[in-house]
Every structure is written in structure tokens, then in C-alpha cells.
Amino acid sequence: MTITIDPQFITETAVRLVQIDSTSPSLAPDGAGEAEIARYTAALMTQIGLDVTSYEIAPGRWNVVGRLPGQGGGRSLLLNAHFDTVGVAGMVEPFSGAIRHGRLYGRGSQDMKGSLAAMLGAAKAIVDGGLTLAGDLLVTAVADEEHSSIGMEHLVQTLTADAAIVTEPTDLQLCRAHRGFIWLDVETMGRAAHGSRFQEGIDANIRMGRFLAELDKLEQSLRARPPHPLAGPPSLHAAKLHGGTEISIYAAHCRLQVERRTIPGETVAQATAELQAIIDRLAAADDTFRATVSAAFARQPFAIAAHAPISQTVAQSIDTVLGQPTPHIGQSFWTDAALLADAGIETVILGPTGHGLHSAEEWVEVASIHKLAQILAETAVSWCG
Fold first, then answer.
1. Burial of 108 (0-12, 13-18, 19+ CB in 10 A)
2. Where are the domains of the chain?
């Protein structure tokens, strides 16, 4: 069975998506949000022939779901991208949609508007080819992945599927794992006193320094641990530090925000306990050392087996389109795939080739968008039946 994509449609759609400002208002005060890009995507889905539902999940924040209904008896497949982008500070032409030397430039071109265009192109190819699927094909675009993933949290409460492909950029390699993250708050407590009264003051900042010295040792030990075969080793960094009120006053309080990157198999409880162990050791050595640690926010790591049915189906489609064996990779960054997996949906990650995620120059290779659309279409036909 031959599936023919429309490269011109895919390219023009990708250009137009980049030209629409969908900067996250959670990351930039003047961020446009997803309203305009959601309207454009919903209209295009309708034009293609999908059944479309739009959800305003928060003011100005939108999810859009396009459904190509199956005839029954087949497995459903969910394709996913996110609408929102990070900010554009330092970019020369964030919304131009310019194509030079086969590369589409602009904010979100790689992350991940090229992917959204490929998803739409895959659905269009199936409809234009008159192909009838047994299971449903769901084309989904969500809000807020770059900040809190309220879009995906809403999506997994709204619908389900037998499998999913998140089209985050992977250079057309099959991604089966990525790291998670935990944001931890560490606070040291001292006692305020005039800077001349050393007998009375207890310096929370100096005590945080002791904690940081031990944290550095932990960070080095994390990276020396056996890594996950695809996602690599765990890590952490001290992200933000604040303590003290005035130059001539002993700091009564110091707060450190730590980001801990986790690998499959690690838990929030385990990561928190590692920091608590440091606190316990320091407190045992000095009865004036008082500190607490708590997990403020967490996202789980993600992994799926190579023998999982969706892994095998997507790998075969990649091999067919690219004509070569498929590398299986992991990513260091987190994606919404983890939330789909947590919802019980078998999920893999596959996206186009590009450069400059969150940087001043971002681009996606146009040819890789076309190849991605072909792979997604082949996968839909194989998976849905």
C-alpha cells in the first residue's frame, strides 16, 4: 500500500505555524499563548477532514484534538505536539518562517511546530489516499509543555489511546527513554543578630555553605553511578540561592533551590532522602545546624522497552522510510511522553532533525519534516489496521 504525503502542504503549514507567536505566557510576561495557533490548527484539521474539538484549559491556553475515526476493530494511535514555545530574547527573526538552505528558521521550528506540521501532513496523506483505518487516529496539540504541562495533564484526563507518539525532536531516531526532574527546596535556619554580636548570631548562609560543599560531593557521585543505557546518569545542580537581609545582620534564613535530574527507576523519595542524609550528618556534627528539605515539584522519568508493540511498529516504519536500521536513543530533557506513559498509554518519541532548542537561532531541516510525516503515516496504517 502506497501512502503519498504532500510536501508542499507540510512545508507551508510549518512556515505558517512558526509565523504565529505562541510564546508561553508562563515564561514571558507578554507571551501570546496558544489562542491564535489553536484556531489556525483547528481550521486546518477541519479542512483535512478530521473531527475537531478545542479545549480552553485556562484563559488563553488551548488544546486541540483532531480525530480520524476508525471503522472499528483496530488499535487507536495518538500523535502529539505542543503549541507553546519559550521566549524569543536575542533572536533576530523569531517569527519570519524563513527557509534557507533547506532549513526553516524561527522560534518553535524544531520545538515543535515542524513536528505538528508533519502530524497534520500524515493525517492528510491518509485521508487523501482514501485509506480506511480500523482504529482511531488522534492528532493532538497541547498547551504549556514548556512550563507546567497543564495541556497534557488535561489531555490524558480527556481521552486515551492504545499507543502514542510524541514528536519532540530526535533527529529521526527512536527515543525510548528520558530523564525526569525534581525541584527541591533546602532551607537552613540561623539566628539574626547584629553583625558585631558573634556570640548571639548563627549564620544560616555559612551553614548553607556547608550543605553546598556536601551537595557537590553528591553531584559528583551521581554522575559516577551506573547510567541508564539510554538516558544516561542522574545529576543535580544548585539553581537558585537566597539568604540574609542586611550586610550588618547575621542571616536567619537561607533558601536553596536544587534541580535533581532522575533516571528511570529513581523516585522522589529516594532523591529527597539523599539530601536529608546530608542534613543529618551536618546536624550530628554541629548542634547549631538546622535545615529542612522538601520536594516542591516533580516529573517522572520515562522509558519503554524495545520489544513493546509500539516500539516495534515505529521502528519498522522508520526502517521502511529511511532504508536503514533504526538507532534507539534516550534524551536528557523531559517531555510530555512521561505523562502519557503514566496514564497507561504505550508511548515512544520521534521527531525531526534540527538545532537550537531554546537558543537564539533555532531551525529544523525541512526534509526531515517530510520524512517524519511519511513515518507517522506508515505507522498509523500499520498500527491502526
1. buried
2. 7-178+302-384, 180-299
Contacts of 90 (CB under 8 A, 6+ apart): 360
Q: Kindly give the interhelix angle for 7-19 and 366-384, rounded to the nearest 10 degrees.
A: 110
Q: Could you give phi then psi for residue 317, rounded to 5 degrees?
A: -65, -40
Q: Which CATH number applies to 180-299: 3.30.70.360, 3.40.50.150, 3.30.750.24, 3.40.50.300?
A: 3.30.70.360
Residue owning grid cell 510536501 = 7
Strand residues in the chain grouped as ranges (E):
51-58, 61-68, 77-82, 99-100, 103-105, 137-142, 163-166, 174-178, 180-189, 235-243, 253-262, 290-299, 302-303, 328-331, 346-349, 354-355, 363-365
Assessment of whether the complete model's pTM goes beyond 0.70: yes
Over the stretch 229-275, which tens digit does the pLDDT of each residue have?
A: 999 999 999 999 999 999 999 999 999 999 999 999 999 999 999 99
Strands 346-349 and 163-166: parallel
